[in-house]
């Protein structure tokens, strides 16, 4: 079953003080079936993150459709979904991991992961147990669990960001360079979680500069340069 289909997608950005509109991406087409992992590759500035942010509806596309087969709403064009629908999908179905952590102040590391589950309706005790499991998996020092993330290193913030998104076991997970500032051991922890989520049926769309990390993980690869889906088994290379 196709869970996500991008059709004739295009996005441009307007620089108002210069009265200019700059195209970011055009004529993007690809689809992904439930439980698959598609990797998006291309040189810096090619529009990879723009695609992910548009699926998550941080950006609104200028052209095309982003058709998502939702549990709650059936097939829905994310480009035209209401704000209420987008909030609901983010809460229950679609997760997003970026290189950057943007969280509420005065909320501890432990509380952030627990809250991700509480907002889905999980009981308090279950949320606490699962949060601690996630933080342990990503090797967050227990001394940091009740600290505020603004004191964390870049790698610690990124691991927390991943824990918050993956603990919800989303139906669709978007990964925007989630291993950018991680050491090799932490990257392997991320890989373990991705493999586990895939086994549980999560569909993933991800951007990685680390080709070795993607090897054997993606079911297919979308190459920005050619605008085509290529087999993940083929050797791929691109400019960084």
Automatic annotation (TrEMBL):
GO terms for molecular function: ATP binding; ATP hydrolysis activity; ATPase-coupled transmembrane transporter activity. It is a peripheral membrane protein. Signal peptide: none annotated. Residues 4-240 form the ABC transporter domain. One of its GO terms (cellular component) is ATP-binding cassette (ABC) transporter complex. It is found in: Cell membrane. Keywords: ATP-binding, Cell membrane, Membrane, Nucleotide-binding, Translocase, Transport. NCBIfam families: CP_lyasePhnL. Belongs to the ABC transporter superfamily. This is Alpha-D-ribose 1-methylphosphonate 5-triphosphate synthase subunit PhnL. It comes from Gracilibacillus ureilyticus. The lineage of its organism: Bacteria, Bacillati, Bacillota, Bacilli, Bacillales.
